[in-house]
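Q: How would the structure tokens look for this protein?
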Amino acid sequence: MSQSAGVAQAASTTPYAGSPAPAAPAPSAPDGLGGRTAGTTTPTTTTPGWLAQWRLVIASVCILASALTALMLFSTWQATRAASADTAQLVRVQTIKVNLLRADALATNAFLVGGLEPAQQRAAYDTALVEVERTLTDAAQAQPADGAALAALSQAVLTYTSSMELARANNRQGFPVGAAYLNQASKGLRSTALPLVDNLVTANQQRSRDAMSPLPWILVVIPGLLALVALGYLNQQLARRFRRRLNVGIAAAGAATLIMVGLAGVAAGNQGSEDSRLLNGSYATVVDGVIARSAANDAKANESLRLISRGSGATYEKQWMAGATTVVDKTSGDALGSVAGQWRTYAEEHAKIVALDTEGNWDQAVAAATSSASGSSTADFTAFDDSLREVVDAAGSRTTADLDSGRFLFLGVLLLALAAGLAGAASAWRGVTTRIEEYA
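A: Here is the predicted structure in token form.
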């Protein structure tokens, strides 16, 4: 019994020969390799993940460089457009000043005649004032920033014309008080209206000069150069990992970015050179020419005021000399040298008038000052003024035309540079994507 029981116990604990062995327990996987602990994530460190990150970075760099380059080029384009508008406004306000002084010179000269003024001078006076009113309206519409100053100037012009009409009305009737009204009108013009014009001239001259000072070309190309550095670095990293010296997409992106840099640099550099040429060329001719013309008309008015005031001749002669000095200075260069001889001819006639007045021959001096015959002071001055006006008008038209024509060409280059930059971003994206697809 005991032996049978032992055999039975052994049989119950020993497996049958044909039965499979129990499976061994599976080894636990270390964290971060084959298994995950609940609630944890594994960072992407695979080559496709690395490439995807670089694809996004390099495309963003190319797009950013393209956007910054386009923005700086657009800023220069806007500045060129503003320079054209500000230059045109500068010409307008300077024309207002010239016509005001021209009207004053005509009125004071005609005042010497007494009674009815010469019809030709009366018509020229009226034309000058009509031109002032028209230019004031055009200037107010063209530049809202000048609105308040132009409104004040318009009121000052109205005051001047009212005083001058009183002076002329009394002069026609032979009343001595006419001279007092004339002096009041001329002094009011110089103390109220002309300072307003001078402020407008200064403001528009500053605006136009600032607008013709674009960004240096070196600043415009910096974003593109930085993008080229980033593309070169990425190509080097790809070459290390894939044993291929050149990535076609990255190389195409570099070529497109290089084109963008070249276009932007050439456009900005050319615009800077063109603006510098204009500032020292036709623009300077406009500024100097109008200053000379204003000073000349002021001098011509003082010539007549000298004779009207009689005993105060020395005071007005000083003012004539101041104007003459300005004219000689501004017409001494090549651009305005063509009218310098005409001014000297007029100045010689003026010296004869002064000599007659100084010697006590006042009637002869008045006759010489009011004569419009060929070779007279008035005829010589009119010839000078007309020639100078033609030179200034031509220079002003040339300046605005050059600015306008260059602006449209610049805009075309801007668009090409932007397109090249975006093409570079697309090429870089495709070049990296090709490597990622090799893992698919």
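Residues 1-21, 26-44 have pLDDT under 50 and may be disordered.

The chain has one domain: 52-204+215-437.

Upvote if useful.
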